[in-house]
Structure formats: C-alpha cells, structure tokens
Amino acid sequence: NDYTNRYYGCNRYEGPDAMHGTHVSGTIAGKRGNGIGVEGIAVNAKIMVLRAVPNGDERDKDIANAIYYAVDNGAKVINMSFGKYYTPNQSAIDAAILYAKSKDVLFVHAAGNDAKNKDVEDSYPTRRLTDGSVASNWIEVGASSSEKKGKKLIADFSNYGSTTVDLFAPGVDIYSTVPNGTYEDASGTSMACPATAGVAAMIRGYFPELTAEQVRDVLMKTTSPYKKKVVIPGTKNKAKMNQLAISGGFVNAENAVIYLLNKK
After folding, report:
1. SS3 of 198, please?
2. Residue of 174, 206, 205, 202 lying closest to 26 (CA atoms)
C-alpha cells in the first residue's frame, strides 16, 4: 500500500508466461536481414524488458514504478500493451506519466479488445489525467485487420473512439516471436500497439531532434486515410474512420519518413 516504495519483487521478468511480451518485442525489434522468423520494424531499437503485469489485472503501483524505471534508465518510447477498466490509484500513474513527459518520453498504449467506444468508457492507464488535462506524449492505438473488402477493415474486437483513439495499426493474425525460439500468430490491440511503437522508435532513432510530442504529431499527420465507411466493432453499423479515431487513419512509416525528409 506504500506508493513511495520503489524497490521490491524480483528479476524474473519472464514470469509465468512470456509469450505476450516476447511477441510484442519481436514486432518492434526482431532482428532484420537474417532470414529467420520475422523482421522487426525498428532496426535501431533496443528492448528494455519490464514485467509490470502478472497474468491478470495489473496493479497501479507496479505500472507507475515500471514507468519510472523505464524513464530513469533511458527509454524513449514506452509500449503499453495492457489495460483495464478500473484504476483505484490513478493519481500515482498520472504522476508517472507527467514525469515521463518531463523527460521527453513517448507512450504508445493499446486501446483494448472489447469492441467498446472509449469516448463512453475509457480504459486505464489513460492520457486523460484526473485534473482534467491530457498528456500530449501519448498515442492510443486500435487494431486493424487484413480484410481486403474494406468494410471490416477495423478488427471486430478493437476498441475505438473519435476523441480517445489516435490511429489504427495491424492487429489481426500478426506473426512474431514467442519463447523458445519459435513464432506464432496473435491478434489484439496488443499487437497493433508495438506496430506503432516500432514506427515511433524508428522515427526517434533517425530524427533524434524531434520531441515525443512532435513524433506523435508526425504519426498523426501521416496516417493512411480510408474514405469509405467501415463496420463499427461489435455492431453491424458502419461509420467513417474519423468517427472511430482522431486521425481517421492507419499508421504509415513510409509516409512519416517522407514527410520528415521533405521538411529538412
């Protein structure tokens, strides 16, 4: 119960099941060019492994301390492929988010897999702080599918929100690393989140002069738009993309790099 206590637990970061985190990490930084398995998005990224979530709901104290640890040890992008709908100590996480902001660290957070409108029911952690302000060093990511016809372009499980979700990224049947040197498909906004975090890490590596907020702005400006209506997750109704996400589009690494090169 003591939120000032920072040092506890052990260094068994693999925990009871390391599949989820290993899969996420491979999407971000799987070794490129070796002809094995998958190629990560950010060739220049290093993964800092922090287990803050057991197999179940995470504790606010653990999440806050993981953020502090990551920031103090040099993280520039924090991937958060987890979430819940109840937070008993949001102020503790708010303080950690603001600390990360003061150190120019970008958060990339998975929107959740319950086909919910986050404008109506938000999940935690969230950039919406208890004092009413909004953290600007934050990207909220929903999951897109590989549906070619377009109408089901958004994963049927993905949370969404016209004011709470920033963009979408691939999150269905994503092939990536798992423990013991093997590979598997997995689906979820947990998979879309590292796809975006990988692009953010790549941008921060090649354009180190950009702040966390500027990286977010670039990714938002350079999304791939989709003009036609798509099916709203969990319903049979359709909506335009800007009704499901602030940017109304999908993360696009190529667009982001071209945009930045043209600005130089």
Report:
1. helix
2. 174
Residue 158 is encoded by which pair of tokens? 């993905």
How much is the average pLDDT of 206-234? 96
Residue 158 has pLDDT above 90, yes or no: yes
Question: What does the chain come to in residues?
Answer: 264
| pLDDT tens-place string over residues 20-72 | 999 999 999 999 999 999 999 998 899 999 998 877 678 999 999 999 999 99
The three-class DSSP label of residue 79 is strand
Sign of CA dihedral 5, 80, 120, 212: positive
CB 150 within 8 A of CB 122: no
| C-alpha 261, offset from chain centre | 25
160, HSE (Cβ side, Cα atoms, 13 Å): 30
What is residue 219's three-state secondary structure?
helix
The owner of tokens 């998958």 is 38
- Mind giving me the DSSP string for 200-211? HHHHHHH-TTS-
238-239 and 230-231 as β-strands: parallel, antiparallel, unpaired? antiparallel
Alpha helices in 176-229 (DSSP H): 189-206, 212-221
Distant-in-sequence, close-in-space partners of 136: CB < 8 Å, separation ≥ 6? 101, 127, 213, 216
Are the CB atoms for 90 and 119 separated by under 8 Å?
no
The Cα–Cα gap between 120 and 235 comes to 15
